[in-house]
Amino acid sequence: MVPMLNATKSTRTGELGTRGLDRISSRKRKVILKTSGVENLDAREAEELKIIRENRDRVGCDCKGACNPALCSCAGEGIQCHQERAGSPCQCREGECGNPAGRYKFEQTAVQMHFIQTIMETQGAFSIN
């Protein structure tokens, strides 16, 4: 039996962002993996995970207001600016972003509607007999 991290559906914001996820200790992660049948844990993984966590803290551009493509770190990497919530991770303003790759804005309502539509389609709600 696989241990459950959180058996209840949560809409709260967790320590790891908007999806209600909380960090678990290395020891707890190892127990979960072993219980799930993973026999060999790679010791290098801990260092790789640390690097991933550090990189997540260094995302987004520091542009204030309008993005200047010559100075924008996102444009320099050839990726879209991204807005998860106001001012995070990118600080450029919608309508003033000059990033040639564009700008993505997370829309919670669109995600929820896509989820509902997918559930309805997979359960045959849109089929005509």
Characterise this structure.
This protein is mainly alpha-helical. It is 34% helix and 8% strand. It contains 4 helices and 3 strands. It has a 3-stranded mixed beta sheet, with no helix packed on it. A hairpin with a 2-residue loop joins strand 1 and strand 2. The chain is flat and about 50 Å long.
Number of strands: 3
Assembly state of the chains shown:
single chain
Shape: flat
Query: How confident is the prediction overall: mean pLDDT?
Result: 78
Largest sheet: 3 strands, mixed
Strand order of the largest sheet: 2-1-3
Q: List the total number of helices.
A: 4
Q: Given the helix and strand composition, which structural class is it?
A: mainly alpha
Question: Rounded to an integer, what's the Rg over CA atoms?
Answer: 20 Å
C-alpha end-to-end distance: 41 Å
Features:
single chain, 129 residues, mainly alpha, three-stranded mixed sheet, 4 helices, 3 strands, disordered N terminus
In short:
This protein has 129 residues and is mainly α. 34% of the residues lie in helices and 8% in strands.
Secondary-structure map with pairings?
Elements: H1 26-35, H2 44-57, H3 73-77, E1 81-85, E2 88-89, E3 103-105, H4 108-122
